[in-house]
């Protein structure tokens, strides 16, 4: 199970339930609001009423847009990606699950249309992203509480903003929080073509770190290798190459990594451990292979390796909203400087959601599906 995402709070869940009223439901009285356009409208949303195969349980429905209360923000969604954590949540095997029925999508970017009378942090025209997971971003528009949103600069590319709040945040924190790395140090990771993997490559390059990027072999391996190297990857090797005896010679010229980032589990994670420097750390943030992490006794005793885990949801719980906002702004600076770009994306209109869901669950897909509204 992938474990990148953010905390679904009880209050957010309750708000979602109120806003999933059928179109015939009664609306609460509107408070004073400030807007260029705050006319009541119908919302198109991807809703699931029970857990299962996303392509079968997700439906495109019409919902009523709630009125804007004093602390509310009316948002028109612009784009929202399909992440593995979104799929896991719909399947019912994610760490935190919203109450059903729920609107899919934990990430995305929208533009503020109207704000309530007590809203001070954002204004019409601003771009916003979810502060936490479970907000339900796969819809054309919505009314959210101000505390559920974080303003982001609108001078960065739309796809970068839409994919900013999960994968790059996970990549940055894992690079910064577990080992005191210095320029020239090496980091090894699997699933290097994933959204997190691509962010790790770019952020590491900006920090002066060398990356050893492990991917599964595939027919277009050279094309993938070239793309990752264009992002800043120093080395790209396949899972099969990592297991070869010749890797000992490889590490005569490349410093043994002190940090390994594991999103696969199983044999792949064991190979990462085998190549870690003494005292190094492997951080697990996902389990695509759905197999346990196995560490040999000798690696733990004689190399004193450390096994850790990371979940952005827990990081947010342990840190203040201001600290998360600071993280977002740090990443925005990297984007402006051309050091961090969005992952390879394929834009899909909201009405073609089934195709997007099915594609996102196929093997060897290196392009993230982005729903456009």
Summarize the structure.
The protein has helices spanning about 10-20, 55, 85-90, 160, 165-175, 195-205, 220-230, 240, 245-255, 265-275, 295-300, 310-320, 320-335, 355-360; strands at about 35, 40-50, 60-65, 70-80, 100-105, 110-115, 125-130, 140-145, 150, 185-190, 210-215, 235-240, 260, 280-285, 305-310, 345-350, 370.
User: What fraction strand?
Assistant: 15-25%
Morphology = globular
> What's the rounded overall pLDDT mean?
89
The tally of helices reads 14
Derived from helix and strand composition plus strand pairing, the structural class reads alpha/beta
Query: Largest sheet, if any?
Result: 8 strands, mixed
Oligomer: single chain
How much helical structure, as a percent, in the residues? 25-40%
What is the end-to-end distance? 28 Å
Number of strands: 17
Which stretches are poorly predicted, pLDDT < 50 over at least 5 residues?
1-19, 21-39
Radius of gyration: 21 Å
Family: Belongs to the zinc-containing alcohol dehydrogenase family. Quinone oxidoreductase subfamily.
Protein name: Enoyl-[acyl-carrier-protein] reductase, mitochondrial
InterPro entries: ADH-like_C (IPR013149), ADH-like_N (IPR013154), ER (IPR020843), GroES-like_sf (IPR011032), Mito_Enoyl-ACP_Reductase (IPR051034), NAD(P)-bd_dom_sf (IPR036291)
Domain Enoyl reductase (ER): 60-371
